[in-house]
TrEMBL record:
One of its GO terms (molecular function) is epoxide hydrolase activity. Residues 1-19 form the signal peptide. This is Alpha/Beta hydrolase protein. One of its GO terms (biological process) is epoxide metabolic process.
Length: 422
């Protein structure tokens, strides 16, 4: 009788605690269904006026996306062969949820490993990406892989949130910064999902959020991997002044950064200074969003994008733009630039943490961060690439999750070699 009583109390207590947590964050399973907007999208895409021929055919991609790429390839595929329903079904194979944190709706994928000792890891995307840019790496990271040398069986519980204002996450307050996003995501990992410690991976704006998590939550964030850093990359002059010798592959990346800084950052100034102009101009203009976003996917990826190991093909680009358009989130996505005018730190200072930091450089990324620089901002334990002599992954660009998924999977799995208790 006493035993029964205690069990009843325990069950009631557990129900209260779990109930309280669910009620507090309103955690709910989520399915993507954007079919309602599809006829409008298709009609607009099909009926958009575009020139019969390029104004200046010799201008080249330096002057922005080329007409034949936009009109004959991407636009034509969007109207004819692209199957949103198929893409949506693929995205829905993942376990999606929403939660309410600090009054904001946060959408996230939470794909759990079957292993009880899986490492929790949060993967953070940027602009113009979304959770979709990690699609190829999510399921593989949940699979246990035995390392005979260490005797460890490594797998991950993978969390991929949509940044505030991106696709299914609600727009944040106007004064919100990446530090607020970091606090919200730490609540997601620690309180909503109950992970006492976890690892982070970040790229683009997601690296800003990841670095804020790494710096500000040094008890819960116990390892961080970056494919991009929220620090202004050194110029050729800085590198020379510091007597750093670059490999040929690193020189390619340095050149990409020089081009970004001189002829590639118009979108950056626009979105930082007048987000409403571009945001409203393209709000209901899917072909416009395709030109603005698709041009970045084309320019910022490996020139071999779309051929193995890259899966960053036109279908991936159209899926990404469809997500932005159909969720009406292009406007709120570009605001992240205006909300974080100092998103790139100029002074390299160490984060107050002893958690290990890992970094991977992809050859066709937009910034080069030599090891000497990365070592200044945290407890650098791994500056890794497939070919360590070249100090870069020699395939892949700004969207590593799509452009070289096997390499990114390996990079993130490497976190296990440094994550405490595993
Ligand atoms: C696109 O527009 C053309 C010309 O108006 C029309 O013939 C065609 O059926 C439309 N295609 C789709 C998929 O709506
Ligand atoms: C690794 O973990 C998986 C899932 O827990 C298990 O099925 C498998 O037997 C383990 N492998 C080894 C070598 O321990
Ligand atoms: C396996 O473990 C060893 C020893 O910890 C480590 O050096 C090696 O990098 C690991 N291999 C992989 C693929 O993580
Ligand atoms: C940001 O704006 C909100 C109102 O939306 C206000 O309550 C809050 O105090 C502001 N925060 C800062 C840091 O200014
Ligand atoms: C670079 O090398 C030059 C010549 O050896 C030396 O004078 C200078 O102090 C070095 N700079 C740094 C930052 O190490
Ligand atoms: C964590 O951050 C706090 C506040 O900045 C600092 O006092 C503490 O030393 C840090 N812990 C580690 C292990 O670096």
């Amino acid at each position: 009788m006493g035993l029964t009583f205690r069990l009843v109390i325990t069950a009631a207590f557990a129900a209260t605690v779990l109930g309280a947590s669910r009620d507090t964050f309103n955690l709910k399973p989520f399915k993507i269904d954007l079919s309602e907007g599809l006829p409008h999208l298709k009609a607009l895409v099909n009926n958009t006026w575009l020139p019969d021929q390029a104004l200046y055919p010799a201008a080249g991609v330096d002057k922005g996306i080329e007409l034949d790429t936009l009109r004959d390839k991407l636009r034509t595929e969007w109207v004819t062969t692209f199957d949103w329903g198929k893409q949506e079904a693929e995205l829905n194979q993942l376990d999606h949820f929403t939660a309410e944190i600090e009054g904001q709706v946060v959408h996230f994928v939470h794909q759990k490993s079957e292993a009880s000792d899986a490492i929790p890891v949060i993967l953070l995307h940027g602009w113009p990406g979304s959770f979709q840019e990690f699609l190829p790496v999510i399921e593989p990271l949940t699979q246990p892989l035995f390392n005979a040398t260490s005797g460890k069986n490594v797998s991950f519980n993978v969390v991929v949130p949509s940044l505030p204002g991106f696709v299914f996450s609600s727009p944040p307050p106007q004064n919100s910064t990446v530090d607020d996003t970091a606090r919200i995501f730490n609540t997601l990992m620690s309180e909503v999902l109950g992970y006492s410690t976890y690892a982070v991976h970040g790229t683009d704006w997601g690296s800003g959020v990841a670095y804020s998590l790494y710096s500000s939550f040094n008890e819960t964030v116990r390892a961080a991997h970056f494919a991009f850093l929220p620090f202004t990359p050194p110029t050729a002059q800085d590198i020379a002044d510091n007597n750093i010798t670059l490999s040929d592959a690193q020189k390619v990346t340095l050149q990409r950064n020089a081009e970004w800084s001189t002829i590639g950052n118009g979108y950056f100034l626009e979105q930082t200074t007048k987000p409403n102009d571009i945001g409203l101009a393209l709000y209901d203009n899917p072909v416009g969003q395709l030109a603005w976003i698709g041009g970045k996917f084309k320019l910022w990826s490996d020139p071999r994008a779309g051929s193995p190991p890259s899966v960053l093909d036109n279908t991936a680009i159209l899926t990404s733009v469809s997500l932005y358009y159909l969720t009406h989130s292009f406007l709120s996505s570009v605001w992240i630039y205006a909300q974080n005018p100092n998103g790139f730190h100029t002074v390299y200072t160490p984060a107050p943490t002893d958690a290990p930091l890992l970094f991977s450089q992809y050859e066709y990324n937009l910034g080069l961060w030599p090891e000497e620089y990365v070592a200044k901002v945290g407890n650098l334990v791994s500056y890794k690439a497939t070919d360590n002599e070249r100090l870069v992954h020699d395939f892949g660009g700004h969207f590593a999750g799509l452009d070289n998924p096997p390499a990114l999977i390996e990079d993130i799995r490497n976190v296990a070699n440094y994550f405490p208790g595993i």
